[in-house]
Amino acid sequence: MNWGWKIAIVYTVFAIMTVGFVIYGSMQKVSLVEEDYYEKEIKFQQQIDKIKNAVASPDAVEINYDIAHYLLSIQYSGSDLLKGEIHLFRPSDANEDMLIPLNLDEKGHQKINATTLLKGLWVVKVSWESDGEDYFKSQQITIQ
Question: If both were cysteines, with which of 85, 114, 130, 132 could 70 make a disulfide (CB 3.0 to 4.6 Å apart)?
Answer without folding.
Answer: 114
